[in-house]
Amino acid sequence: MKENQDWKAYTMSKYTNFEGDNLDNYLGHEMIEIKENYVKSKLNVKDHHKQPMGLVHGGIYSTLAETISSYGANFLDGGTYVGVNNNTDFLSSVQDGEIVCIAEPIRIGRSFQLWECKMYHEEKLCAVSKVRLSKVKWKNFLYYFCFLVFVLR
Fold this sequence. Notes:
Blueprint: H1 2-16, H2 23-27, E1 30-35, E2 38-44, H3 58-77, E3 81-90, E4 98-108, E5 112-121, E6 124-135, H4 138-152
Antiparallel strand pairs: 1-2, 2-4, 3-6, 4-5, 5-6
């Protein structure tokens, strides 16, 4: 039982921390909670998140959605999932404060997952995203990578 608890603690740590030099750490994106079929994160809006008109840039919403959908898919399956489609609808603008993003799966397949993310500002829905993720098959990826290295030499 202890071994299972250690694995679960490691897994939670692995999937609740954006470690290293990456976009999420740069943006200040924080993971709040991750569990089976549910992911929650937040972002405190800063000036560098805004477009020239003073509103949060649309790419920020898409980034939040794709990040937590990817984390949720990888946590759920234990595979490696990457975003292949991201559709975000903006419902109201945000200038400051905190954006909370909640993602839940719509469809879980063997090779792809579809997640819906709802983003809130002061408990008001401000954006909705659907993110489709594909499972990376490392064997195929490695063949492709080796092919590119050979061709580009």
